Amino acid sequence: MNVTRTQFLLALAGAGSLAAQERPKMHMFERQDFAVDDFQAAGFILDIGGGGEGIIGLMKSSQVVAIDLYKRELEDAPPGPLKIVMDATDLKFLDATFDTVTAFFSLMYMNPEVQRKTFAEAFRVMKPGGRWLIWDAVMPTVMEKDTKGPAFRFRFHLPDGKEIQTGYGAFWPEKPLDAGHYKALAQQAGFRIGAVKEQPGGFQTFSMELRKPA
Ligand SMILES: C[S@@+](CC[C@H](N)C(=O)[O-])C[C@H]1O[C@@H](n2cnc3c(N)ncnc32)[C@H](O)[C@@H]1O
């Protein structure tokens, strides 16, 4: 079953278009506060998986080129960015286009093979010396029998004082997807690993800065 983020959220609310027997039962974590720090970026920012709440678009508006696999997710995101339906594993941009790439809780929606291709593509479209900023949740392996995966609920605090409540959920992975997993993917793709910030809590989150060597 391929469930978009929107279908997933509707299903959580019990009001989705999914039939009751298709609604995934998720392992619900307590809502967590998460402060999203501002960051400096010149020129266009490629935001991978930039639909949904479109947090990076809210922060950086028309600097952002938001790509997402699903048109519906981009339609849901606030206006400001240039929105394009595109697969992160097959980016349509020229090599060395962007100084900055972001992925805000997008990698958890991809399986490890899709992630591997996404890392290679992000590397290709970044300028030498460019950086990729990643925010994500650590995906544990199955924690509760008969559930499809974890549902991480957030209260995001943006630099301008805005608060956004939302939830992201995906299917249990076969092996844990933690900061170590992403560091290994980054190194394979050729990135240098910069600052990694891990935030403990009922569920763990992290932010990571990767750099393409100049
Ligand atoms: C949790 S949402 C991201 C949240 C979003 N960044 C925000 O600010 O609210 C994950 C997104 O990644 C997208 N996605 C998953 N696989 C993708 C792929 N291969 N290429 C592009 N987008 C993808 C999903 O469609 C979904 O909209």
Structure overview:
The protein has helices at residues 5-13, 55-60, 71-76, 112-125, 179-189; strands at residues 26-28, 32-35, 45-48, 64-68, 82-85, 98-104, 126-137, 149-157, 163-169, 192-199, 205-211. The protein has a domain at 38-138 and 175-211: 3-Layer(aba) Sandwich (Rossmann fold), CATH 3.40.50.150. The chain contains 5 helices and 11 strands, in the order αβββαβαββαβββαββ. β8 (149-157) and β9 form a beta hairpin. The model has no long low-confidence stretch (mean pLDDT 92). The radius of gyration is 16 Å and the shape is globular. The chain has a 7-stranded mixed beta sheet with strand order 5-4-3-6-7-11-10. The longest helix has 14 residues, at 112-125. It is an alpha/beta fold. Residues 4-5, 49-55, 67-70, 73, 87-89, 104-106, 109-110, 114, 168 line the site of S-adenosylmethionine. S-adenosylmethionine binds next to β4.
Order of helices and strands: HEEEHEHEEHEEEHEE
Tell me the number of helical segments per DSSP (H or I, 4 or more residues long): 5
Number of strands: 11
Q: How large a portion of the residues is in β-strands, by DSSP E?
A: 25-35%
Shape: globular
Strand order of the largest sheet: 5-4-3-6-7-11-10
The biggest beta sheet reads: 7 strands, mixed
Low-confidence stretches: none
CATH architecture title of the domain at 38-138 and 175-211:
3-Layer(aba) Sandwich
Q: Compute the gyration radius: what is it? A: 16 Å
Whole-Å distance between the termini?
A: 41 Å
The mean pLDDT is 92
Q: Determine and state the CATH class of the domain at 38-138 and 175-211.
A: Alpha Beta
Structural class: alpha/beta
Q: What is the fold named in CATH at topology level of the domain at 38-138 and 175-211?
A: Rossmann fold
CATH superfamily of the domain at 38-138 and 175-211, by name, is Vaccinia Virus protein VP39
